[in-house]
C-alpha cells in the first residue's frame, strides 16, 4: 500500500515539475516569434486556411517551448543571484555551472527561433516569402523612423 502511495506522489511531483514553468510564466508576456510576424501579415501574404492552420500550430508549439526555456533560464538567473549574494560562502564551481546552463537556455531559444523560420519557409510559397521579406523591411524602416522622431520629442 505504501509503495503505491509513494509511486503516486512521485508521479504527481514529476508532472508538477514539468508543468510548473508554464504555469509560473502565465502572468508574463507571450513571446513574439517569427511565425507570429508572418501570421500578422496573413492578409497581405494571401495565406490559405491550411497555411494559417499549420503556421498557428507551429507558432503555439514554439511559444510553449520558449516559455519553458525562459522559465528555466530565469530559475538559473535567480540561483546565480542567490549564490553570488554572499561572497564569503560563494561556490565558484556551482556558479560557473549555473551560468553555463543559463546561457545554454538562451542559446536554445535562439535555435528554436531559427528552426521555426526554417519550418515556416516550408509552409510558404516562394512568392509569399519574397512578399513577407518586403513587408518586414518596410515595417523595420517605419520603426526606425518613428524611433528617430521620438528622440526629438
Question: Top keywords for this entry?
Answer:
153 residues, mainly alpha
Care to describe what's here?
The chain is mainly α and 153 residues long. It has one domain. The protein is 85% helix and 0% strand. The chain contains six helices and no strands.
Helix and strand topology:
Layout: H1 2-25, H2 34-40, H3 42-45, H4 49-84, H5 92-123, H6 126-152
Helix pairs in contact: 1-4, 2-4, 4-5
Name the helix and strand elements from N-terminus to C-terminus, one letter apiece: HHHHHH
The number of helical segments is 6
Q: Radius of gyration, Cα only, in angstroms?
A: 21 Å
Mean pLDDT: 82
- Beta-strand portion reads under 5%
List low-pLDDT spans.
18-27
Overall tally of structural domains: 1
Instruction: Indicate the overall shape.
Output: elongated
**Structural class, judged by helices and strands?**
mainly alpha
In this structure, how is the largest beta sheet organized? Answer: none
What is the number of strand segments?
Answer: 0
Relative helix content: over 70%
Terminal CA distance reads 72 Å
Amino acid at each position: 500500500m505504501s509503495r503505491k502511495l509513494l509511486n503516486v506522489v512521485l508521479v504527481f511531483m514529476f508532472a508538477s515539475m514539468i508543468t510548473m514553468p508554464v504555469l509560473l510564466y502565465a502572468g508574463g508576456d507571450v513571446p513574439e516569434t517569427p511565425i507570429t510576424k508572418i501570421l500578422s501579415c496573413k492578409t497581405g501574404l494571401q495565406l490559405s486556411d491550411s497555411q494559417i492552420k499549420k503556421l498557428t500550430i507551429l507558432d503555439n508549439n514554439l511559444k510553449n517551448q520558449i516559455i519553458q526555456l525562459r522559465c528555466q533560464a530565469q530559475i538559473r538567473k535567480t540561483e546565480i543571484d542567490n549564490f553570488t549574494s554572499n561572497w564569503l560562502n560563494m561556490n565558484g564551481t556551482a556558479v560557473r555551472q549555473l551560468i553555463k546552463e543559463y546561457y545554454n537556455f538562451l542559446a536554445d531559444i535562439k535555435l528554436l527561433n531559427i528552426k521555426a523560420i526554417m519550418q515556416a519557409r516550408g509552409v510558404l510559397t516562394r512568392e509569399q516569402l519574397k512578399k513577407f521579406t518586403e513587408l518586414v523591411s518596410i515595417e523595420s524602416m517605419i520603426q526606425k523612423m518613428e524611433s528617430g522622431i521620438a528622440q526629438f520629442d
